[in-house]
């Protein structure tokens, strides 16, 4: 039975290892450490999947903004990781669903992600360019996706999603 909860300080080393193992490199795990040390970090939206107290997966949503006619608050989903031995068992999907639910409860309207389109479409993400959004990161259009957590949250908004500089290091 899996449990989903906000991360604790004691789990950080295990989270770092899960992310490193999942991606086969340390950049994404280091990104999480950098986000934790800035004002964009939201402890309640850094979630772990636990089985018998063991961290099997992690997802992080952090504050960013969309620069349009005004600054619009949004969340970046990055990264999502599941320990390799437990991938393709639905843990990542459950983390996304639980995380998006927590984002809605926290009254956020928009989530952006850079990821595999076939994977993220199942949660309702769509190409961000369809909404007139562009990324400050050099990423392929099809991999830059957005989800409206509230209906019409992106109506008539053309703008640039401004990722903090530490995202450029991934």
What tags apply to this protein structure?
alpha+beta, acyltransferase activity, transferring groups other than amino-acyl groups, transferase, 9 strands, single chain, 9-stranded mixed sheet, 170 residues, globular, GNAT_dom, Aminopeptidase, Acyl_CoA_acyltransferase, 4 helices, GNAT family N-acetyltransferase
Helix and strand layout, with pairings?
Blueprint: E1 2-6, H1 12-23, H2 27-36, E2 46-51, E3 54-67, E4 71-82, H3 91-105, E5 110-114, H4 117-121, E6 126-127, E7 133-135, E8 144-148, E9 159-162
Parallel strand pairs: 4-5, 7-9
Antiparallel strand pairs: 1-2, 2-3, 3-4, 3-9, 5-8, 6-8
Helix pairs in contact: 1-2
């Amino acid at each position: 039975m899996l449990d989903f909860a906000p991360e604790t300080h004691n789990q950080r080393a295990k989270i770092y290892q899960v992310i490193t193992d999942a991606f086969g490199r340390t950049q994404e795990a280091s990104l999480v450490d950098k986000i934790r040390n800035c004002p964009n970090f939201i402890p309640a939206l850094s979630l772990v999947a636990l089985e018998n107290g063991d961290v099997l997966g992690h997802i992080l949503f952090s504050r960013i903004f969309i620069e349009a006619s005004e600054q619009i608050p949004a969340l970046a989903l990055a990264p999502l990781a599941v320990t390799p031995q437990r991938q393709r068992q639905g843990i990542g999907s459950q983390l996304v669903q639980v995380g998006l639910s927590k984002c809605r409860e926290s009254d956020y309207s928009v989530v952006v992600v850079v990821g595999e389109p076939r994977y993220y479409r199942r949660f309702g993400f769509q190409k961000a360019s369809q909404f007139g959004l562009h990324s400050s990161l050099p990423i392929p259009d099809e991999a830059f996706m957005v989800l409206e957590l509230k209906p019409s949250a992106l109506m008539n908004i053309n703008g640039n999603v401004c990722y903090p500089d530490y995202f450029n290091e991934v």
